[in-house]
Design a protein that fits this description.
Layout: E1 6-8, E2 15-17, E3 28-30, E4 33-34, E5 37-38, E6 41-42, H1 43-61, H2 72-92, H3 100-116, H4 129-151, H5 169-181, H6 183-216, H7 218-255
Antiparallel strand pairs: 1-2, 3-6, 4-5
């Protein structure tokens, strides 16, 4: 989430909000260089580790006792489990249960990385296209392999629409192939663009509040509070969209429709 850093303007007239894009800067925390390869531990890596740690703690320790009357944490985990399980059942079918752990991991990982970015002075990992594209490519390659494992060379039939005139097939096959190979781009850009745009707007509005002061800044402050609530909702929705599109792609690979 945007912080309240300041920078002095070049004319000395006062202070202005810091560059709203500064919050997305990757910073090295621990320099690691092996054989000329830079694998330094960054703030992005730190928040990924935090997300994995929190998710692991919640899912392992909260259900360890498996109480009949669940605690608040156990209820949250069970609701999350059932939410994703229902998503998989509706969009993939009975065969999707084998892939539930992967879908659940994707959903929770994206959700917590989005939410950690809402914490003041936090870092939004999903605001970087390199991260979202890497996840999208992992899903794309995995789903494609599943398609070929299940259907063999018959999976190429996915790119041939049924019931269309033969003379239109060359054009439609090209369109289907292009559409298929743009999946990782659309999947990654959707998440990256929404998170970056939202956090940039939060930074801008927080700057207006600071510049206008308490009395003059009440309107931007009210808008920022409302926008923060909206951004939290978007953070959840983007994790949901990322997971449900993964389910749809998986359904295409399993059932070829």
């Amino acid at each position: 989430m945007a912080s309240s850093d300041h920078s002095v303007d070049h004319h000395g007239a006062g202070s202005f909000p810091a560059d709203p894009m500064h919050q997305f800067e990757i910073k090295r925390l621990i320099d690691i260089n092996i054989g000329g390869l830079d694998i330094s531990f960054t703030n992005s890596a730190l928040f990924m580790v935090l997300a994995v740690t929190i998710i692991s703690f919640m899912t392992i320790f909260s259900v360890r006792k498996n109480a009949i009357i669940p605690s608040r944490m156990q209820s949250i985990v069970e609701m999350s489990y059932e939410f994703v399980a229902d998503m998989v059942r509706q969009n993939v079918g009975s065969q999707g249960k084998n892939y539930f752990p992967f879908i659940f991991t994707i959903f929770m990982f994206v959700l917590f990385m989005n939410m950690l970015g809402m914490i003041p002075y936090g870092f939004t990992v999903t605001s970087h296209i390199a991260v979202t594209f890497a996840m999208a490519m992992l899903i794309f390659i995995g789903v494609t392999l599943i398609g070929f494992i299940k259907h063999g060379l018959g999976f190429f039939g996915f790119f041939v629409p049924k019931g269309v005139p033969i003379f239109m097939l060359p054009l439609l096959v090209v369109i289907e192939v292009i559409s298929y190979f743009t999946r990782p781009i659309s999947l990654s850009v959707r998440l990256f663009a929404n998170m970056m745009a939202g956090h940039t707007m939060l930074k801008v509005f927080s700057g207006f509040v600071i510049l206008m002061g308490f009395l003059g800044g009440w309107l931007p402050l009210a808008v920022m509070v409302a926008f923060t609530g909206l951004e939290i909702l978007i953070a959840f929705l983007q994790a949901y969209v990322f997971a449900i599109l993964t389910c749809i792609y998986l359904n295409d690979a399993l059932h070829m429709h």
